[in-house]
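Holo prediction — glutamine.
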Amino acid sequence: MNNLNINQIHQKFLQGKLSALELTRGCLKVIEKKNKQINAFLSLNDKAEEQAKEIDEIIKKEQRIPGLLAGIPVAVKDNILVKGMPCTAGSLILKNYYPVYEAEVIKKLRQNGAIILGKTNLDEFAMGSSTETSFFGPTKNPYDLQRVPGGSSGGSAAAVSSNMCLVALGSDTGGSVRQPASFCGVVGLKPTYGRVSRFGLIAMASSLDQIGVLAKNIQDTALVLRAIEGKDEKDETSLKLDSSTQIPVRAMDLGNLKIALPKEIFSEGLEDKIKEKFLGFIKKIEKRGAKVEKVSFPYLEYALSCYYLIMSAEASSNLARYDGIRYGGIGLKKIKNLEQIYLKTRTQGFGDEVKRRIIMGTFVLSRGFQEKYYLKAVRIRDQIKQEFQKTFSKYDFVITPTSPTLPFKIGERISDPLAMYLSDIYTVPANLAGLPALSQPIGFIDKLPVGIQIIGNWLKENLLFSFSQTLENLVLDKTI
Ligand code: GLN
């Protein structure tokens, strides 16, 4: 069951060899067995089995699969609103929050027959690269319980990787789908900014946030994207698409492809073993006919600073609503006035990393510093966009490792924010430029998974999937 893709599972449903209920129960069993240790799920949907039964009845009666994800158990990062379930964003401040409405992506999952299995752990308000800043404790990497699963969508990545579900949703502001995907040996996609509605996603940095997909293979990733993409009147930044994601994905001939390899990635910080593995894989691609060329991206070295300025500016403003009145009641006693409600709620309700970013964000937006920091970052963001545009006029894809390091030990970086921020060095440029980017596994080093990142041109997810399918076949050593 674990090696089948969604399409193959649907065939089994139709043949009567497997039911949605069996599949859902199978996942719940794995969760029961492993979640205490891994801590991937924060809450479970007690209606999951009931919903699976309903799908089974339709399949039996109508002999058809009612929806792209019919009967497929999906995990959802706990910063995406699901009606009837808590939504904590990994924070004490939202511990008791039950949304009164539902995210657009969840509505679409339901329309496509998906079974929402439960909500997954994350760094508090999606701020982090290790899932250690969650108020509800860290998630562990299924490949090595001493190590982090990456973050901030570490719960979703660990859930897919340890067979607790088939696919999962995450959110990616600076790499939070791709980096944990790489650490947990699964596929992680951040779509083009605007391809998927952000309505009902708890905002971190609105100009960078995108809901993304974690799955075991490219076919499933494309299928989930197809189910959740498209214009939504409730999100002004969502895009009307000229063409939907094509399924099934077909592998392509690498013969005519031109791929850019940013020179700047070989700076210090990239672990030797990853470099070796990455370059070895590039050789394989070249052998199949693709042209891979080293290209200079002079602004890339500023991408991380630029990201951390823009992200914290936007986050500080988005997080102003957690004031104990509008959102974030944490049950305070003996309060004398309004100011105390604000102060105590935010002091007690937020963790250190969130506070650090709020302070940094309000600082860079303050009078006198706005020009020096925030506006400068906005200009650099423009330069980065232009560099990508120039690159995509000559090349089909940009390729990098997903992360400069292997999954690190729990606790190793938590007290050194700068070291933690370096985890995102290869992933943030795609968010700054709004481009689609995908991480996929290419093998193991010391029994730990390693991923590469492919960045595609704006809205060219179909091409990206075809290329990635070819690479997936190459990794699995199937003939292309
Ligand atoms: N790790 C990055 C950060 O801490 C990215 C977070 C994200 O993508 N949500 O900001």
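READOUT: The domain at 6-254+436-475 is CATH 3.90.1300.10 (Amidase signature (AS) enzymes).
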